[in-house]
Amino acid sequence: MSETARLILENQEIELPVITGTENEKALDISKLRASTGYITLDPGFKNTGSTQSAITFLDGEKGILRYRGYAIEELAENASFLEVAYLLIYGELPNTDELEYFTNSITHHTLLHENMKRFFDAFPIGAHPMGMLSSMISSLSTFYPESQEQNRSVTDIERTIHRIIAKLPTLAAQAYKHNKGLPIMYPKNELSYEGNFLHMMFGVPTEKYDVNPIVEKALNKLLILHADHEQNCSTATVRVVGSSQANLYSSISAGIAALWGPLHGGANQAVIEMLEQIKNDGGDLDKWINKAKDKTDSFRLMGFGHRVYKNFDPRATIIKKAADEVLEALGVEDPILNIAKQLEAVALSDEYFVQRGLYPNVDFYSGIIYRALGIPTDMFTVMFALGRLPGWIGQWKEMIEHSAPIGRPRQVYIGTTSRPFVPLNKR
Ligand code: SDX
Predict the structure, then answer these.
(1) Which residues contact 175 (CB under 8 A, 6 or more apart)?
(2) What is the CA(394)–ligand 1 centre distance, in A?
(3) Contacts of 313 (CB under 8 A, 6+ apart)
(4) Mutation pick for ligand 1 pocket among 51, 233, 273, 357 (CB with most ligand atoms within 8 Å)
């Protein structure tokens, strides 16, 4: 017999169905609440509100668990390729050899952009932030593929759009970087891996042969996997809401990129490095900055610390911290910022303010240090996050479309002025 909860309101009592997930998470189904009671619920930031049931990613914030379709992030980061993980998130299973070959070949042969798009880049100022360019360019891609907007999109149309976006986002990202620096663009090379091709387009120059460094390629593969999905975070929820209006996938991903840019979300990886450099340039007085982060009258926050779900540790931060040591050693890179980050973590985690609030390093705290070691500039860090999160956004959008989710339209409680007559201008 299904569980229910009883809600007693003024003069009425109603029963609410209880939903139980496969990991025994519990939820009250309030989908009939307003119709049967006239009440709605209020939950700023949706801290206690589920927007959907999903079979893609499971997080346990207390135990620091993250699984994609049931596979532990630690195992995927160590053993899988990013395209295998992308396939898993989008289609639900790890691909077999034939499936992976088809998926990889299809993506490899969609990496080029329409030549007209070069003129779009020319319109951006030199130094334009790559995230602003990326969000605009991915949305403008939809104008070259109008079939992606049609109401009765076929499964083939949807699959081709998915492969095109996965193929073209690295090309757009690399071209955004080249434009930001005023450098000549590099065209994709089909013989390279997904990560190798991105590195070639980012760091290659037309006048010289570019050899992909296998250490960098492997580190990038791991970082992309660690960022690939994270259930209903701010940018994924944005992708779902935009997609729920039946806007095309390019526009939904563009909105997700815009949401990710914020320093409280994916923009934190850039903000962490800027914060660590500020602390270093200020003389490295860690206690001063920890006290600023605790001071409610000071807007300063410890960037890369805290998380809406993880109140113990972010398993991705643990993996990235270890990878940072390995990558910097393998590349022979000494970065004083890494030591400041480790010292700051130690000081914060011995401070009651952070421990009591469950504030631990999140995925963004150490990732920037690896990106720096790979030669990626700070204003490209959130672009790297977007490249990783892309298959998660796509998988969540596809799950929503396949379940014919209703358009996302939250309610509100009105607290403004009640009814009043219009006042003519000469009487105000
Ligand atoms: C990502 O949701 C996801 O899954 C996101 C993500 C993903 O993969 O998609 O994991 C990626 O966005 C990681 C988070 C990156 N952002 C940052 O590192 C920015 C710094 N952190 C925060 O601003 C904050 O911790 C959030 C935004 C991450 C979470 O904010 P919440 O859940 O709304 O928590 P809150 O702001 O209500 O904080 C609770 C308390 C408050 O203090 P009190 O009111 O209880 O006294 O903790 C304090 C906050 O002031 N607090 C911090 C802090 N983060 C929270 N105090 C100092 N420094 C911080 N970083």
Answers:
(1) 113, 118, 121, 137, 185, 201
(2) 25
(3) 64, 360, 361
(4) 357
- For range 132-158, the mean pLDDT: 90
CB atoms near residue 357 (< 10 Å)? 12
Round to whole Å and give the CA distance between 417 and 415. Answer: 7
d(CA 210, CA 219): 18
Quote the pLDDT of residue 143.
Answer: 95
Q: How many Å is the maximal CA-CA distance in the chain?
A: 79
Q: How far is the CA of 149 from the centre of ligand 1 (A)?
A: 36
What does residue 251 show for φ and ψ, rounded to 5 degrees?
-70, -40
Is any atom of ligand 1 closer than 6 Å to the C-beta of 303? yes
Contact status, residue 250 vs residue 138, Cβ threshold 8 Å? yes
DSSP state of 231: S
| Per-residue model confidence (pLDDT) at position 1 | 58
Q: 57 in helix, strand or coil?
A: strand
Domain spans of the chain, in order of start: 4-65, 67-262
The two three-digit tokens of residue 235, written as one number: 């940018």
- 8 A C-beta contact, residue 186 and residue 113: no
CATH of domain 4-65: 2.20.28.60
Domains 4-65 and 67-262 share a fold: no
Q: Quick one: pLDDT at residue 148?
A: 84
- Helices and strands (H, E) in the chain, number of each type: 18, 6
Q: Can 364 be counted among the known catalytic residues?
A: yes
User: How confident is the model at residue 326, as a pLDDT?
Assistant: 93
pTM over 0.90: yes
Q: Give the per-residue pLDDT at 112.
A: 97
Segment 153-177 mean pLDDT? 95
Q: Is 359 in the pocket of ligand 1 (CB under 6 A)?
A: yes
pLDDT digits (tens, 9 = 90+) for 403-412: 999 999 999 9
Please indicate whether residue 305, judged by its CB atom, sits closer than 6 Å to ligand 1: yes
Return the structure tokens found at 361: 């390093």
Tokens of 42: 């209020």
Round to whole Å and give the CA distance between 183 and 314.
37
In what helix (H) or strand (E) does residue 35 lie, and over which residues does it extend? helix 33-37
Q: Could you tell me the two tokens for 152?
A: 């009765």
CA 271–ligand 1 middle distance (angstroms): 13
Does CATH number 3.40.50.150 belong to domain 67-262? no
What is residue 150's predicted lDDT score, i.e. its pLDDT? 78
User: Rounded to an integer, what distance in angstroms lies between the CA atom of residue 260 and that of residue 178?
Assistant: 21
307, 335, 379, 403: the active-site residue: 307
